[in-house]
Automatic annotation (TrEMBL):
Protein name, as recorded: DEUP1 protein
UniProtKB keywords: Coiled coil, Cytoplasm
Cellular compartment(s): Cytoplasm
One GO biological process term: centriole replication
Coiled-coil region: 99-126
A GO-annotated cellular component: deuterosome
Length: 169
């Protein structure tokens, strides 16, 4: 009987260890989630910074172009203007594609973050359920142990009475 309770106690301890591993994994997932949010925020800041840098660069290039146009002949001015215009278009297209790539990356990271949040919530629900089940089983096993001890005591009392009655007979 003692071996059965020892086995039950070992099983409960293994469940408790399993529960602790789940909690540790949840903590690690939460830390990873925070890191991903931080990375996402940094990406958004970088996109905003690049956007403001490009605007400043564009204004400087326009002023430089204006000065060059004033100093050169009309035909040469047109050629230079076309070159600058095409250069600006390429830069703008490149910048736009870079922004789109970053937006896509941020969107992907946000989706991954959302999936990890769902996973953490699911694990926490399961862990909570397992903890409640573990507590119920522990209570039941404690009750059974108390009943077993009571039965053992009653058995010893009856056995003692039987021995006493046999001696009397």
């Amino acid at each position: 009987m003692e071996a059965g309770f020892s086995e039950m106690r070992n099983e409960l301890q293994s469940w408790d260890a399993f529960w602790r591993r789940i909690q540790l994994e949840c903590q690690q997932l939460h830390i990873e989630l925070l890191k991903m949010r931080e990375y996402k925020d940094m990406q958004e800041i970088q996109i905003k910074h690049q956007s403001s840098c490009v605007q400043g660069t564009e204004q400087l290039e326009y002023k430089t172009t204006d000065l060059l146009l004033l100093a050169q002949s009309p035909e040469h001015q047109r050629e230079e203007l076309n070159k600058v215009f095409h250069f600006q278009i390429r830069n703008q297209q490149s910048h736009c594609s870079e922004q789109e790539r970053m937006k896509t990356e941020i969107s992907d990271l946000t989706e991954e973050l959302h999936q990890k949040e769902i996973t953490i919530a699911t694990i926490m629900e399961k862990a909570s359920l397992l903890q409640r089940q573990l507590k119920r089983e522990l209570e039941i096993k404690d009750e059974l142990l108390a009943k077993q001890q009571l039965l053992d005591f009653q058995y010893k009392v009856i056995k003692s009475e039987n021995t006493h009655l046999k001696e009397m007979v």
